[in-house]
Amino acid sequence: MGFYEEMIRRIAADADPAACVEEIRIYANWVLVKTGKWSISTYFHGMPGFTDPAGMGTWMGDWIGRPARAAALELLVSREILKRSVGMACLKSLLPDPPATIAGGAIELVEPAACRIPTCFIGYFKTAAAWREKGYPVTIVELFPRPGDIHWNEADEVLEKAELVLMTGLTVVNETLEAVIRRTPSARMRIIMGPTVPASPVLFDYGIDMLGITQIDDVELMSNYALLGGGSIANAPAGALRSLNMARDLRALQERISALAR
Fold first, then answer.
1. Cβ count within 10 A of residue 136
2. Where is each DUF4213 domain found (predicted)?
3. Which of 53, 92, 167, 225 is 20 to 30 A (C-alpha) from 173?
4. CA angle 106, 236, 35 (to 5 degrees)
5. Of 78, 94, 110, which marks where a domain is finished?
6. Nearest alpha carbon to residue 211 among 166, 256, 242, 179
7. Could you tell me the pTM of the whole model?
8. In which domain, by residue range, is 40 found?
């Protein structure tokens, strides 16, 4: 069993075993799934090594009513982007709420450190680009780079030197997390964040120090935003989503962030 398969199965071990898939909502940029509760995942497109279904191949209605944990595990090994996106939203909806969190966005918590130590964002974040423009020692690594970004295949040097590493939850579903860990040997802290991140402490066993997770507070607000093509959680309607942060030890995490900023 490979890195990805083992990690997903370990995460799924904490999933509600009795829940069934109740609803699936698919939009241009998001997937929402309800088992016992609603959850969200990015509907990612164009990833190397995956296929985008077309036409009738997008039908997901046959998954309604199926045992949710088994469905999530089956969907998450598919090479079809839609199935994997639905699978992650399904798995996330099955996980228990974390017992303790810090409210707010993960990025804002680490700004005092990012302004002084080599920081690498894996995946595009608007805040990261703004920090780079302000002169922070920030680089952005992307599979689809914008001006100023560095392509994933050409990023060995910046990844090797990065002391603070922040990445999107897509590194889990597109199977690049293992490579991120291997390619960031100097990292003093690694953070994975965004709407695709499962609220699972299992990720702390795989080189991650903090999870920036997203919970749905008002599914209809989020659905209406997604229905109209909304593509960034930063622009989601107030009250639709909530950003929280997890760590093995939240007090120790805050102390480590303070130490990085000194």
1. 17
2. 11-95
3. 225
4. 85
5. 94
6. 166
7. 0.95
8. 3-94
Edge-to-edge strands, sheet with 138-142: 102-103, 241-246, 210-216, 189-193, 164-168, 119-122, 138-142, 150-151
Find where tokens 């079809």 sit.
80
Q: What are phi and psi of 187, to 5 degrees?
A: -65, 130
Residue in the structure block whose two tokens are 């590194």 = 171
CB 95, CB 198: distance < 8 Å: yes
Single out the residue in 63, 94, 125 at which a domain terminates: 94
Q: Where are the beta strands (DSSP E) in the chain?
A: 23-26, 30-34, 38-42, 102-103, 119-122, 138-142, 150-151, 164-168, 189-193, 210-216, 241-246
192: tokens are 């994975």
Instruction: Write down the pLDDT at residue 56.
Output: 67
Q: Which residue has the tokens 């490979």?
A: 2
